[in-house]
Amino acid sequence: MANVLTVLRILLALPTALAIVSDQLHIALALVGLGALTDLLDGRLARMNGETTNLGKLLDPLADKIFILSALIALIEVGRVSSLPVILLLLRELSISFVRSVAVNQGVVFEASVLGKFKTSLEFLAVALLLTEYPFGVHILWASILVAYVSAYDYLRAYLRELSGLNYP
Questions:
Q1: Which of 90, 116, 120, 155 is deepest in the core (most CB within 10 A)?
Q2: How confident is the model over 87-94, as a mean pLDDT?
Q3: DSSP 3-state assignment of 40?
Q4: What domain count does the chain have?
Q5: 169 is a domain residue
Q6: Residue 107, Cβ density class (10 Å: 0-12 exposed, 13-18 middle, ≥19 buried)
Q7: ∠ CA(149), CA(154), CA(155), 5° rounding?
Q8: How far from the centroid of its chain's Cα atoms is residue 59's Cα?
Q9: Is 148 inside any structural domain?
Q10: What is the per-residue pLDDT for 165?
């Protein structure tokens, strides 16, 4: 069931982006809320039901990236956010996805960290606020980028520690 919710978040990405670019912001906001709800529930359900799998550990962050980046790119299209923060976020996400792929290839699967989960929560909040034109939406987006790069450092440090057995600062 948890992976079904995760796949649902992926499937919601396109309708959310289309609602944004077609100026149906109330629908987009509802879809962002639904996407955030699926993100909140999928991991909890997996842990509660003992369904935590490596597939879920890989699929969940991918679903988050697809959903959030699609919405942010649509928000660029309609002029609600500039491209720079989205590019910075995209670079971080692609880099961490690469590190996770290399790690998986070596038999190591990283779960989302607390910082990674917090980053995603900030991203969902930023998208919702940008849709409502709340004045702090861009500030929340920049805060999520700061958290994103701190969490990227943590993922890289964990990977290097796992790879070498050494304790990196």
A1: 120
A2: 97
A3: helix
A4: 1
A5: no
A6: exposed
A7: 95
A8: 11
A9: yes
A10: 67
